Amino acid sequence: MPNNMFFTVMIIVMTFVILVVFLHLFRANRKKFYKDKVKELEVQRNMIASTPVLIELAKIEPVIKNEKMEERYNRWQDRFSYIKDNRLNVINDMLIDLDFFVEKRDYKSCGYRMAKVEIEIYKVREAAEHLLDEIRDVTLSEEKYRTIVTKLKSKYRTLNKEFQDHKQLYESMQEEIELQLENIERRFLDFEKVMESNEYSEVVHIVKALDNMIEHMDIIISEAPDVLLMANQVIPNRMAEIERTYKEMVDKGFPLEYLNIEYNIEESKKTIEKILDKVKVLDLEGCMFDLRTMLEYYDSLFIDFEKERLSKKVYEEERGDFTKKLEKTNQLVKDIFDQLDDIKKMYDLKDSDIQIIHEVNKVLVVINDDYHKMIAKEESHSTPFSVLNEEIENLTVRLKEMEDDFDKALKSLGNMYDDEVRAREQLDEIQDLLKQCKDKIHSYKLPVITDNYFVQLSEANEAIEDVISELELKPIVIKTLNTRVDTARDLVLKLFNTTNEMVKMAKLSEMALVYTNRYRINRDDINKRLDDAETKFFKGDYKVAFDITIQAISLVNEKMKTKFEELANEQ
């Protein structure tokens, strides 16, 4: 128990000691932080005090040659004195107060006052730096502006040499350019005078004026020959060539009014006059752009001319082909319409078949109308060939589509006619096949002709009569006709097969009976079968008679039985 108390007391004491040490360190570090900030602000204050304003002012004293410069010099001194003797002293007092509050550990007041000192130092530093920049504008002016002017003189000499070496290229502009060059030279003299009298406020304006004048002269020297060449030679020559080509093509029948060439040439001449007026006063702004635009326009006209020539050639070829095709189509449609009443009488046409033909005719009427309008445009020379070419291409496509629709209608009519021709040909084939059946049945003296032969013969004859009747109908119903032909063909083929089978089995039965009769002596089993077979044969059951005879043959000669069976199985 005493040990526990001892440990508890020790823990409390150690905790208290640690807290005391921590608080002491915290307060010491905090104080150090604020002291360091104060020292940093003092350094910033000292840097303002050490601004080299006095050094720069000392540079100005030897060059004071007029009252204006002396007035500025005195004003700069007064401003620096005010900064040094007043505003920096205010900052000193604020730093002393700040140091006092740090020692008192009044950190709440320290933060507020430190912010005020930082703001004041910033304002004073800005004022000092601004003052220094103003003074340096003067102390460095001579060196700075002389460097600039030296470069401008070099550029001026290059431009002047370029002008003098190629003076003939500037034609009517020579006098104006020389006057402008003289103005530039006078400006250089003005610069020297101002620099001599230390009127630096005027130097800025003179240097800026020199820079603008030389830059403008650079544009004049570099662009003026091209502008004059284009305005006086290139574009006028191009316009003359365009006018000549335009007249030649119009005389050949090309409709070129849509290009407005005559009006545009007159406007171009006015524009060139305005450009030459601007050139005389050395104003080239926009001149080159306008001239290049004109040149591009006239170059594009040659493309338009060539397009019209090509379009005319293509148009005339396509128009000739289209005219022939249109005439042929018109005649074909006319022929179909002239025969339509007869076709209606011949075939049972659907309403849709007739409707397609009428629709095609309406479309053809519109195409013919548009074609005649196009020809009228061509003859009146009111429409360019490039447009006419598009129209003939459009008409060609429309005519092709119409022909496709018309072909569908003709195909339907053609199929009906083909079906009729094919039906008549098949009728002849069916009748010929029926005749073969009759000839074959009479070519062999059958003891009995079976009833199914006569039934099938009757059905085949009736089917043939139906086909003949259908062909004699007006109009012909093709679908019904095809059904009749198929039925007749199937029945005659059935009769043909029946006839062949009956004659074949009759022949084989008779042959087998004749062959087997040689084995009748002393063979009751053979005699019995042969008697049965003969009975069936004379009743017309030729297949049964053959089968019984084959059984009898098998009793005496197996090889002959096989041979007869092979004959029976042959087609």
What does this structure look like?
The chain is mostly helical and 571 residues long. The chain has 16 helices and no strands. Helix content is 87%, strand content 0%. Helix 5 runs antiparallel to helix 6 (174-196), helix 5 (141-165) runs parallel beside helix 7 and helix 13 (478-516) runs antiparallel to helix 14 (524-539). It is elongated, with a radius of gyration of 63 Å.
Main beta sheet: none
Structural class: mainly alpha
Mean pLDDT: 76
Helix content: over 70%
Shape: elongated
Would you report the number of β strands? 0
Order of helices and strands: HHHHHHHHHHHHHHHH
Summarize this, please?
By secondary structure, the chain is mainly alpha-helical.
Task: Draw up the topology in text.
Blueprint: H1 2-49, H2 53-60, H3 67-103, H4 107-139, H5 141-165, H6 174-196, H7 200-251, H8 261-280, H9 287-346, H10 351-380, H11 385-443, H12 451-472, H13 478-516, H14 524-539, H15 542-554, H16 558-569
Question: Features of this protein?
Answer:
mainly alpha
